[in-house]
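Sample 1 of the test manifest.
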Amino acid sequence: MLRWYILRRLLLLVPTLLLVSFFIFSIVRFLPGDVVAIMISEQGYADDEAELRKTLGLDKPLVIQYATYMKNVFRGDLGKSLWSGKPVTEELSRRLPTTLRLGLMALFWTILMGVPIGVLSALYQDRWSDYLLRSAAIGGLSIPGFWIATLVLVFGSIWFRWVPPMDYVPFSANPIKSLSQLLVPSFILSIALSAGIMRMTRTMMLEVMKEDYIRTARAKGLAGWVVVVRHALKNALIPVLSIMGLQIAFLIGGTVIMESIFVLPGMGKYLIDAISWRDYPAIQGVNLLICTWVISINLIVDLLYGLFDPRIRYR
Amino acid sequence: MESNLQEKIIDPVSMRVEGIITPPKRHHWLLDLFIQLVKTKPLGAFGGLLVLGMVLLAILAPVISPFDPDTMHGEKIVAPPSRTFYLGTDALARDLFSRIAYGARVSMTVGLGAVGLSTILSTIIGILSGYFGGRFDTIMQRFVDAIMSFPWLVIMLTIMAILGPGQVNVILALALAGFAGASRVVRSAVLAIKEMDYVMAARAVGCRNTTILIRHILPNVAAPIIVLATLGLGNAILAEASLSFLGFGVPPPASSWGRMLSGDGLNYMLKGPWLAIFPGLAISAGVFGFNMLGDALRDLLDPKLTGGMRLRR
Amino acid sequence: METTQNMKRPILDVEGLDVKFYLRDGTLNAVRDISFALFPGESLGVVGESGCGKSVTFLSVMRLIPVPPGKIQAATLRFDGTDILKLSEKEMQRIRGNRISMVFQDPMTSLNPVLTIGKQMREVIKLHMKLKDTALEDRCIELLSKVGISEPQMRLRSYPHQLSGGLRQRVMIAIALSCNPTILLADEPTTALDVTIQDQILRLIKSLARDLGAATVLITHNFGAVAGTTDRIMVMYAGKIVETATTPELFKNPLHPYTKGLLKSIPRVDKETQEKLFSIAGAPPDLMRELVKGCAFIARCPIRDDSCYHHLPPFSEKKQGHYVSCWKVF
């Protein structure tokens, strides 16, 4: 029943997780040119090459390195940041909540905008409103979020004399103000996502509305909107749910850009900074975290899928 | 006198031939596709126009640009659009119009390179995975799953971090981030065709796998691949712009639209808003064009391989 | 139109019903100016090939035809005295499922896969009969039992994919009859089912409708289905009605060449097996092309002549209650 379904998904996760983490881990080891040399020459992390190598554990064989690394990961130790000297875990835990909030708000806008517009577009198929909405959706996918953000900043300052606050107000200090700072970036982030969801919803609604059970529902004398919401929507959203996993991946990528532009101390910005500093333990830590996060989200989506579609549950 | 290309109207009672319908002329399949596109999907045709514009801009950049994109014109820093500098100048007094024109080159080069590489990779993997199945397929799909669930931007950034700056590296990064999703589409197309009767018939007759692959499978995955490539170009341009925006894309002095936006666009937004508007407009128009075109092609070529225009020799 | 058969008022009175579909490739004339009546409590069989317009006719009565591509016109289209075409959508919704209900062909796809059987049953009863809670539950269980479904409580909680085809169709029938309709329309209710189940379902429909006093319309392409269960039969071809008679009369004395051909092509169990199966030559006309002015059956008719080609034969009464549309019969 449902338990087996969950179990099966979990079991499939493990090899994927291992594969990805090993992949991330080994990438750093297989680079062209010598990492250590670059790190020393560019960033001056250490004076002694051998010493740096030892710190990074590069003197041991790959498998042992990986094993050591994973052992530490399970203890919560993701290594030390080369740039700040502090444990990577600490740096990440400080920044993770901001990114999470940004992502969740963006997701909220996306569902709020994408689904209803997709439904409307399907119901008014081929009328001018449909063409307008579809073009807007393609526009939403094509216009870079960072350009919209730039324009918002430019014209915001010119017309409204509005400047995004330079300092980020921590959530603990002032929750409302903190969230309000995330309002604009999360909305811009949701534009591209909404466009994708809207198109998918529209396509699925169009398909579902042609199904026989919709005709049966009408033959029962149910009002138009009841048919749409109670009968059509649930069926149409099932496939939409399945692409949510991909959308989340896109979302995370987007947070990187938004955090850079709006100067928000989240994980995305941390990744960028870490890359500029060649802080490999940090880069590795962020990637691992993102990987885990994404895979968990996919698991949740799969579970929701089972919840929505009874055919999967009772197999 | 009888031609099997023509359709006869027969009177059902007397069984006399009452008339002859001449079907419309068929041209080369590519031209037919084009005609269909303009007639039924005007939006797609508009997208095609934008694409054409961008391609021409890239090719003809040296001809169109009034100036060399790297020439600094003395003190005319952040000058507004004028008759000499159509779109104004940037912080280093370089003509924006010329830089945008050459920027099209950067975008197209990177885009075509990335999509080309991605297409080759995804086609090979998709076909092998779909056609031969088995353990290779299962393992490959786990792999593809892993890549696909990862944010594309993070993958690209990580690759750029490792490889360092440079145009070729950007192409590699884009291709590696994008081929996974594309291979999935190819794989499903292959799976669909594999089950078709004519493929089974070919195998029953004893055709070698290579023959079947080349003669039957390949022509039929051509359609989704074309759609993927078109949409992929749009995504590649966007991705390259995003990377450059963050500072990890094509290095200076190459005029990447993305970096123009993050550099002068952000820094001089109050004094020179045109520096923020035009590069972004260019990116949007290009990506929009490819997306529109790709969408229209997808509708026309119908990946379900039932109905729509099929690419057949 | 009143038959000389009985002077009861028809529960469904149709005159000059014409249904067209305006499609991109042309206009489809699905139903071409037909007239018929349905009397309270009677069982009418509607027989014809695929595409002859039998389903469209009754979908139009329920106004379930999508009206932008479709267009319904009629001189008269009355249900129990009310003009169907003049009703607003909201008023129509009060009739659908309530006074006229329909059972569709494929029970696999006609039930919503993500909603429980119970939910799909309850929504109709709640809507039209305004029952709630226990009364609602009781009604559902009562209906399921009536259609012969065991363990009704458990079934109510099940999803469609957990039931067999026959069970699903029984549920559909239960839903259709839940509000005690005056007319029950059954569009090929057994076509998608196993042969062994078909008979059961047809008998079920017949007995339940009789208990309710509801008129039944059984739409099918299968003469065998209507033979045992209907009072009257209407034969349709290419959007027109070609013959109508009581069931025994039609089988004993078919008048229209099409009807004759159909009956002849039914393979008989009691005859020699060496005989080749008979089938009517040709195919039904393409309803999108300009149709011949006269009788639509002309291309396949063994007894046609010139007048058939030029003039549409009128639908006239040959014997009492037996109507036919053919020049050669008169």
